[in-house]
């Protein structure tokens, strides 16, 4: 077992001044490290037996689709505004600076399907909690969240539904 | 064996007027269909034994990371301008309307690593050929391309390096 934090690069002032960005791309380059980093999220799959794994655009796609394909579970994308073709439902939400919108194809979720949501990073929880509301609005059953990194000092967990299982691999 | 084209939705006038967009998201929802759709690309991995699988942002991430994680091969993202933190190299290229830029983290590719490039769609080949040049510029060895869908009437293959293996799952 290596210390996964050694595979997270810190980049100052990205994407804007004052933010120290955690780059997890080095994890994906090394299949053994990647496997180790996925353990908490693989465990989430075992404990929740989801029908669908939803990934949040675009870094969440990397983890969610890997997990879904290997475990033979369906994958659905949750995307930013205007990226999904056809019929979508969406929710606007506020960010620290400005606002954003997440969308999903409602036909991708059968009524009461058990869904887990995957993203690379849990920070303030605004994106993840909006994604959860979107699954509920599409009549899916939200049963869990999985993240590769959690910035625990930002208290993102408190914004998420306390009744679902939340797993993070690397906690700061 | 089902006809995979039954799982591709056609959306008129997306993302702009006159374009019929092929939505392959229905494939990912069904793990057995997804597996069948990946056969050609899984075969590319067997035939080329890559060290790294590069996915093009953002729909290419879905396929590339799934393939990489399951086969225990490293994954690297090729992203649009300004999305990768830290040191990057990039190439600008022309699209039918306007221009775009792809970037990669040069440290993600060890010299002479064997790399395959994965994207969801091969259309005119502009994006894929630029991604190939980027791998070469980063001193990787480009050995293959894999796509889920190829629009053969747009002749994208002719823009790609003829010395590398090119595989597509669903050909129109």
Describe this structure in words.
2 copies of one chain form a homodimer. Chain A has one domain: Rossmann fold (3-Layer(aba) Sandwich), CATH 3.40.50. In chain A, 27% of the residues lie in helices and 34% in strands. Chain A has 5 helices and 9 strands; from the N terminus they run ββαααβαββββαββ. Chain A has helices spanning 25-29, 31-37, 39-48, 59-71, 126-137; strands at residues 9-12, 20-23, 52-56, 74-80, 89-94, 99-104, 114-122, 141-150, 165-171. Chain A is globular. Chain A binds chain B through residues 9, 11, 14-15, 21, 23, 25-26, 28-32, 34-35, 38, 52, 55, 57-58, 61-63, 65-70, 72-77, 82, 84-86, 105, 108, and chain B through 9, 11, 14-15, 21, 23, 25-26, 28-32, 34-35, 38, 52, 55, 57-58, 61-63, 65-70, 72-77, 82, 84-86, 105, 108.
Q: What fold name stands as the CATH topology of chain A? A: Rossmann fold
Which percent range fits the helix content of chain A? 25-40%
* Main sheet overview of chain A: 7 strands, mixed
Enumerate the spans of chain A where pLDDT stays under 50 for 5 or more consecutive residues: none
Following the backbone from N to C, one meets helices and strands of chain A in this order, namely EEHHHEHEEEEHEE
Oligomer classification = homodimer
User: Gyration radius of chain A, to the nearest Å?
Assistant: 15 Å
Shape designation of chain A: globular
Biggest interface reads: A-B, 41 and 41 residues
User: Main sheet of chain A: which strands, in order across?
Assistant: 5-6-4-3-7-8-9
N→C terminal distance of chain A: 18 Å
Shape-level CATH architecture of chain A: 3-Layer(aba) Sandwich
Tally of strands of chain A: 9
Q: What's the structural domain tally of chain A?
A: 1
The fraction of residues in strands of chain A falls at 25-35%
Instruction: Kindly provide the name of the CATH class of chain A.
Output: Alpha Beta
């Amino acid at each position: 077992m290596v210390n996964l934090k050694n595979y997270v690069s810190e980049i100052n002032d990205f994407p804007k001044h004052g933010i120290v960005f955690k780059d997890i791309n080095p994890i994906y380059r090394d299949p053994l490290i990647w496997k180790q980093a996925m353990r908490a999220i693989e465990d989430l799959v075992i404990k929740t037996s989801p029908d669908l794994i939803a990934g949040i655009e675009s870094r969440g796609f990397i983890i969610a689709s890997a997990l879904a394909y290997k475990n033979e579970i369906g994958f659905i994308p949750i995307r930013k505004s205007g990226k999904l073709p056809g019929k979508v439902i969406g929710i606007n939400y506020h960010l620290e600076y400005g606002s954003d919108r997440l969308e999903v194809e409602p036909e991708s979720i059968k009524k009461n399907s058990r869904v887990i949501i995957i993203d690379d990073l849990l920070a303030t929880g605004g994106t993840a909690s909006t994604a959860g509301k979107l699954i509920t609005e599409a009549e899916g059953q939200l049963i869990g969240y999985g993240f590769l990194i959690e910035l625990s000092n930002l208290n993102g967990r408190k914004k998420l539904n306390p009744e679902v299982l939340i797993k993070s691999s690397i906690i700061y």
